[in-house]
Each structure stands twice: as C-alpha cells, then as structure tokens.
Known about the structure:
The protein has 340 residues and is an alpha+beta fold. It has one domain: Chorismate synthase, AroC fold (4-Layer Sandwich). The protein has seven helices and 17 strands.
Amino acid sequence: MINTFGSIFVIKIFGESHGPEIGVQIEGVPRGKELDIKKLRSFLDRRAPGRSELSSGRCEDDTPEFLTGIKEGVFSGDPIIAVIKNKDARSKDYSAFKNTPRPGHADFPAMVRAKSDTVPPGGGAFSGRMTAPLCIAGGIALQLLGERGIEVQAGIASIGGFTEEEQMREAVLKAKEAGDSLGGIISCTVTGLPAGVGEPMFDGLENKIAQAVFAIPAVKGIEFGAGFAAAGMKGSENNDEYFIREGGSQCSDIYTRTNNAGGILGGMSTGMPVELRVAVKPTPSIVKPQRSVNMNSFKEEEIRVTGRHDPCIVPRAVPCVEAAVAIAIYDLLLWMEKRE
Ligand SMILES: Cc1cc2nc3c(=O)[nH]c(=O)nc-3n(C[C@H](O)[C@H](O)[C@H](O)COP(=O)(O)O)c2cc1C
C-alpha cells in the first residue's frame, strides 16, 4: 500500500498542509495499554511551529484528537485514528508564486506528477507539517518502547558546521537576516534494544530506520555508526571486538569495545546502542531572489519566497527523528516477538 509504513505496527498518514486537517491511522497497538497523553502532548510541542525565534511563525497548537482506538486513555486494540486541525494555514502567502515552483521544494515534481500548473499550497502532502501526525505515531511508539526499557534520544550535532549552541543560534539568526537558511546534522542513540532485532535483506534494522527517517522532509542523508568514514578504515580499525562483562553469563553480557557498527550488524541489533546521524538540508524557502520557471506561461522568472518559514529545520526535526526511529524499531520488535 502506498504511503504506509510497517508490517504489524502499521502507520498511514493523511491530509495536507493547507487542508482542513492532517492525521494518522495506526494499527497494531496492543489492547489495554495506557496512553500518557501529557507526555505525548509535550513530545508534539517539541516539533510544533511558532515556539522559538528559530522556527516558523505559523501558529498551530497541534492538539491531537483521537477519533477511534482509545477509550478513557486506554488503547482498545482497534486501529487508532488521530487528527490535528490546521488552524493557521495562510494560502495567500503562496499566491505570488502560484504557478512557479520554489527551488528546493517538492513543487516541481509534485506539479508534474499531478499534471497541474499550480504549486500545491504549503507543499500539500509533501510539507514538513506532515511530520505532526508522524510524531503522534512516534510518540506512541516511544511510550511502548519505554515500557520495555528502550529509549530513543536525538539531539543537534551541528548547524551550518557549528557545534557550539550559541554559535549555532547566531549562525541561524545571521542566515535569517540575510534572507537565507541553514542545515545541519542530528544524532540519535537508541539504548536498551536487545540483540537480534531485524530481519534479513530488505527488512533489516538499517533499512527500516532509513525508510522511516526519509519520510521526514528535508532529510538528505543517514549514516549508522562510523558510516561513510568506515569506507576509509582498515578491517582491523573498523571491526568492533567483543568482550564479556565481568561476571556475565548470558548473551546480554556480551559487549563490543568500540561501536563502529552503530549497534547493527547484518541488519540486526547487536545489543550495543544503535547510533545514527541524519543530514538535514537548509530550509528551501528563502527570501533571497531565485530563478524558476512559470509553469503556466512557460517562461523563466524570478521569485521571492515570502511567508512564515523555519530559517533552520534542524531543531524541529529532532523529535521527528526520534519518532521515525521509534516507529521502525517498534515494528521490528513486534516481528521478532511474532517469530518467537
Ligand atoms: C518539521 C519541519 C518543518 C519544515 N518547515 C519548513 C519551512 O518552514 N519552510 C520550508 O521551506 N521547508 C520546510 N521544511 C522542509 C520542506 O518540507 C522540504 O524540504 C520540502 O518538502 C522538500 O522535500 P525534501 O527536502 O525532502 O526533498 C520543513 C521540514 C520539517 C521536517
């Protein structure tokens, strides 16, 4: 099925940035588990716009409304449907470039795909806004993983090449002032995941995590452990040697001295922390003038992208990465349990 993720914990996301609402359908949540709605709300708040000087001025409270699958805070075992109303869409911001695809956006391929000469308002179904329902599903997966002692935590590794918090902040504000934008790198670690989670070939842990993480708009790369640097290492440098924890007598007492594999071998977890890094491109919407093509007149023209935008997507993408990783891991865990 198109635009669906997962085999047992199955997610389907629907809606558009400037439509009446966006939402998610989730299957596979065990009956009887409780949802900590406060925790979910604070997780969604980390992604929501309008919360800082570095994020878009679009003001959405992103309150999820559960239509099915949950009664008095407890999952019923039926598919969950949750929606978020779009309250602050301003489609008129898009009228200045109604027929002209914005460089770096999904506009051009989306217009060709839809056989349309009109830019989808707010990016339509390809908008960063679609990560709000992703975070509902991810927030639920994080809670279900947390119950098993599995934690997923992401953070900003760098922005515009800077790693110090104040330098990153200044760089973003400077770029914003210049009508420009910045990208960066998000790192993510999963702890508490037992060894052996992941399936052969197309359903490995790396595959599944990468597939889910690439659902986040503006993600352009992912690496696990030493990642691309492993290509320049010798086997003797890259291999992670095993040891047994003092007094240990079972598989969970076996560790590696290094973790160049990022906690994954053969697409399966090794029991070491799963470590990954995600490359986020600079926000495509920039005020600086850019060249494009009017798809109605079929003439080249210059456009300026106005409206409300994140000068840097990285801070808001951090919870999205946690959500995507949690969804992928929870689904594979359920698979492993089904096999047992
Ligand atoms: C949380 C989040 C917020 C985003 N906000 C914006 C934004 O304000 N302006 C913008 O141009 N792009 C924003 N994006 C990125 C675009 O949606 C994305 O770059 C575009 O749809 C093209 O997709 P691609 O970069 O994956 O190719 C955001 C992405 C995320 C994950």
